[in-house]
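Blackboard transcription, Thursday session:
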Amino acid sequence: MPAFSSLLRSFSSLLPLLPLAFAVGCGEADQADQGPPVRAEDPNAPILIGEYGSLTGSEATFGQSTDRGVQLAIEEINKSGGVKGRKLAVRTYDDQGKTQEAGTAVTRLITDDHVVAVLGEVASSLSMAGGRVAQQYGVPMISPSSTNAQVTRVGDMVFRVCFVDSFQGYVVAKFALDDLKATKVAVLYDQGQAYSKGLKDDFERELKEMGGDVVIEQAYTGGDQDFSAQLTAIRDTHPDAIFIPGYYTDVGNISIQTRKLGLEVPLLGGDGWDSSQLAQLAGDAIEGSYYSNHYSHEDMRPEVQDFVKAYQARYSEVPDGIAALGYDATRLLAQAMDRAPSLDGKDLAAAIAATKGFDGVTGNISIDAERNAQKSAVIVQMKGGQPRYVTTIHPKGMEPAPQAAAPTDAVPGAAPADGAAPADGATPAQGAAAEGAAAK
Amino acid sequence: MQTSFLQDRARALAPSPALAARRSLLPVVVMAALVLLLQFAIGPRIGPYYAKMLMDIGINIMLAVSLNIVNGYTGQFSIGHAGFMAVGGYTAGFITYYGSLLIWGSTQPHGGFLGAGELLFAVSCLVGGLTAAGFGYIVGLPSLRLRGDYLALVTLGFGEIVRVFIQQTDDVLFTAEDVRATAPLALLTKVGGALGFTGLPFYTNLFWVWTFVAITILVAYRLKFSSHGRAFLSVREDEIAAEAMGIPTTAVKVRAFMIAAAFAGIAGALFAHEVGTTLNPKELGFQKSFEVVIMVVLGGMGSISGVVLAAVLITVLPELLRSVAEYRMVVYALALIVMMLARPQGLLGLHEAWELPWVRRLLRSLVRQEPKDG
Amino acid sequence: MTRLLQTLMDGVAVGSLYALIALGYTMVYGILKFINFAHGDIFMLGAWLSFTLAVSLGWAGGDAPWIAGPLVLISSMLLCGLIGFIIERLAYRPLRDAPRINVLITAIGVSLFIENLGQLEPFPFLKKLGVALPFGTRPQRMPTLLPDATLFTVLGVQVKLVDVLVIGISLALMAALQYLIFGTKLGRAMRAVSHDPRTASLMGINVDRVVSFTFVVGSMLAAAAGFLSAEKYPSLNQPAHSTWILLGLKAFVAAVIGGIGNVRGAMAGGLLIGMVELFGAAYLSPQLRDVYVFSLLIVVLLVRPEGLLGKATVEKV
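(Written on the board underneath:)
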């Protein structure tokens, strides 16, 4: 039956639609274990926000930390009455560290689960993938920890509560020049990570502007094990310090091999170093090295200490910067929801954009015109396997007035007006810097 | 004299012009109708998330059916298919992104359905496919002279080399002035590097995806049941015998490679312009290639319908099984091993779905009124 | 000059690791004529099993007795040998007569299975038993079982004990393998089977047993390479498992370049690849280190497909 088989041929491309019925049916079933689908319009139902993160895959520790911070914040907010009298609920999807999954997850959150806002992600490329979807559908998205400048350029629906890499580059450069007196810096970055490349560019620009010199620039690919080629080249230039704007997973081997080659200069890093595993991976090799971070758990401000205690009670570990940012992002979102006239995309986005002086765990946050957070950064130093607070660096133009009495800028945290005495464990900044430069 | 007798017989057995026209046009007309139905009737009804799933299914079908031509028909083992997808995607993205910037000054989708923007997109898809085919030639020609195992290695290496080079590229430019100020050759390097090629206009919709899917399936089908297809299959069955029969095996293999690469390139172009995806070199590496290989193996190497079914399954399963997502790759791997041990021909082997006896019986009982023509 | 010597030493160390892994590939190919894609994963397993053993036996603190190193090395070698045996028995032997492409796919399946099984975080019952997970998604620090001392310094290059041990143990293993293959009856059986399995079985050789034995030996060598690699680069990064795959792949390239099926070729190929990669990284560009290796493969395949030390075989129909 010739005509028949040609008809069949046409239908063969329709075969795929059959399982779609399956998908639709099972999709409902799958949602069941995440909680009942809720609509934002129902006045008594919880407000549903979406979260996407890397709960598995190579970035799993970042995603899990963020999630813990978010969950803690949600619990606390609900305990104190919720937002506008309604509780908050969060639906979380795992994107496995892949941009395609990030896009799918955010599409599902917005178009299928009808969330009012989205939280995520940590890695900048994932935030950009999700951000474009959020922008497309007009739902605001807050990234807790993506520092690459391009993330918020996606559109007016995309915000972040952390600083941007241009600021972070400035922070590390300033610390290197002012505190470590390191004018010749070598750079070793991860060419496979947008974060690393971006931070490297920003650091080099700021360092040169402030009078420093980048003596050499070397690259590796995340996951590489052997850095002898790059480190030998670096050693030949005799730098005062080495800046490694990568993730902590690689810093372990890098620092070990650096010390093995006899390079004893201090190592500098960005917030990608922030992990409880850094000391375990690097061991002694990382002792005395510095990195910029969003907060320090030694900050004596009440918000920080309350957060640290609550987090420890809930999860039995000290929160890292990523968790703190997840916590802050959620709370900032909730506060914006309180202020917004409605939970409609545009209104909520406007409310978020208007955030000024939000007292977060990670500092005093104000959202600027580019939807980035204006806040300070801290420098911590690895001592005894723990990141210890060294100093705070403020955005240009936000420097606190110099305090007359205190000889040391020993105030942890970003609240500049507080003239409190140095907290336990926090060593005076200059002293620490001097120690750091001399320590191995 | 023999020849004219045969010519007479051939003419007598050939279908009438009317029938031939109907046979060639009917599938095309039906496809066009279905695709338009999808885009305008079904698409809006099911919502963006499920529409996206349908698009992902379509793209995976294209990838699987195209790889089937190499792995299935020709029996060669290529595991660098994602590399061609990357080449096609980046080429197409480059054209639409910088083209949009230069022509219209912005990278937002321009014009409506089948408008100027979509035509630019269609052109970029085709160029992407052609570029990928070119790469297929470059990679295939030297390596297909050698034994099949080496091809696997070389294709894997090719995929990795493409990935490394893409990661070296620079950031994307944002304004038309920047674009005009850059030399064309330098512009080629501004495709985003490790961050991925972001900012591409979202042109991919159900219409375009399924149009190309229909074309892919049509081509694959026609190939399989043609003399070209028989050449492919003969190389798969016994290369030395085929060579002895006068079939230029290397040329045949390269041909299969190029066709497969072309469709993979188009699939990559569609992928690049889909909502919520970014062209990221890390995700177009051998993990993606393996996914496509799994689809081909599960579906049956050589069966179009089998591969289509497998592609659908592999695309839909992760969404259904979100709660057990971490076991996904383990299950796939186990399925692969078990398949090879228990049923190496895959779901359908070389057969198509409509050739299965029970399917034939079922369909025959459904369309009992179908007029018979000879 | 310092740079040259440093690169030379690293090249030899890394090259020996590649050689150890390449030997497994080449032996299996010689006997069964197929690429065991899962071999690179045995290497990874070797590294991670060494880690698990070291941690479970309580040597994470870095105060391990001198016996710890050899103990962990031998244990992981034995374990991986067993795993190699099981894989061959369950996944490859049933497909002995199947088309080549089927076995290749199965090998890929096994490879994916091992990699992804290791990435699963659950198995809470193991945690309760106090056993450290073999991998999981977090990077881990390998306990230092080989003392981290500098032997001497020549021309500004520090010669570390670890590197010397890596090279030494690799060479010792390679020498042992040489002796096994060319000096023992079993080795002769292996060579016979690789030459012509049918005739070898007619001569009274138990081909199945020889094949199993080959897999076991190959896996043991890969495990040793894994242990040594973990000692040399202590920060184990499982999440970047593509690195492990690439390492295995480069070792396979080494086997091919040296002449697949040729044991001495694998050793030479391994050292060559190690040198090419490290010298390329040091003097050209470190970002393209993988490209050098694969480019060399393509060149060799085009110019001399049988490899440097291989013999061009005529395929009889």
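Lecturer's comment: Chain C touches chain B through 45 residues (CB under 8 Å).
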